[in-house]
């Protein structure tokens, strides 16, 4: 077998890791061959991030062994030795926003000129060389805060390679990217693979696994289930390994009743504008209706949602069940009947130190007991219902959300959006980082919650999300340019979304 003689780039055997009472990994095994792109998949909470923590030396395993190229892993405190062997590009940026790209690349190891003095010119030059060597089309002078997600990931990969690592872990690298950027990233990964870089690729988007990876490892319930070439594991078999049962996935919302043309308008936007992002949008959502909003990153779709939720200044009028909502005020939107799920849970979604119950009921704290006094029993009761309804994998309502896996944290954010019993749900990328079955339960919740009771505006790049919608509008350059009723044609929808001169990297 090819490459069978060379020791694996990384090998983890029998890894166990507990966090207090939680068994995050019971039997974690992984073997990645030199030069391959290896997928690691599993449901939310399966233990993928925990394994990454162990493989990068951030977590010390309770049991098991990690070997790099056949040799034992470095001592836990020897960060430099770890960085030479492995790097991880996380969803959350690890660059310092205030510094330039060049300063970030050489953070803590600035090239020094004569007499040991720091040389800004040399720093810039070496950074430019490094970026060019790995074909990263980014200026070294750019401030890190101005990087797109795509650029930031490439800069982080180049930085890792410059430290000597030839094994890079990508933790859901496509979660915040749109289709064109994903294609560009994949092209870059293929180039780097050609140059001898090995990747471990974590994603909940299974088609991507087939597109970019040669082998796949599946974890379920803290254990290794299978490792196989992707060509030998069909999509159904892969899903079966992940969820542990041979039942196909359900197409959520396939049987939604049609929305009556005279159903009440729960949300009405008239001439809504957001300076710099949205020109003028007229749109309404009826009771019982899910309206999808699609568009590229520059379309203004996210900013439109944020304006409805009171997070941005806006012009024009927003009405919920006929009542005007004051602009730019989150409490006004909330009181007026808007339930909001933000696009980036790591930034706006939850307070990591607070419990599942506290986070989920944050918007209704005044309604959990007499005179605004929170009765823990009432709060926990609400939280337990939500944990069951949304299938949240947690030790219980008192566990801090910061300890949950990414997908489970997202379910808590969804619960919070629903907690105030809103007239209209405004959801931005609700299934980002969520596994196949959890996607079903999250979209299932949106479907169920909007049958007759309320409406939803669902802003997403995900075709699976948009399929649940009764109709999808497409935004380009801050305006609505088209509308597609349920059953839309994928090619037509994508063409309309992408059919603009999008700025490249
Ligand atoms: N610091 C921590 N403290 C307590 N529990 C933790 C901690 N980190 C992870 N866990 C728990 O360990 C389990 C595995 O989580 P992990 O983040 O490894 O899953 P994952 O497969 O990466 O999931 P996702 O796809 O949702 O990111 C989960 O039950 C999680 O709640």
TrEMBL record:
Keyword Transport set for record: yes
Keyword match Transmembrane helix: no
Signal peptide: none
The name this protein goes by in its record: Sugar ABC transporter ATP-binding protein
PROSITE patterns per the UniProt record, alphabetical: ABC_TRANSPORTER_1, ABC_TRANSPORTER_2
Domain ABC transporter per the UniProt entry, residue ranges: 10-246, 261-502
Domain of life, per lineage: Bacteria
Pfam families: ABC_tran (PF00005)
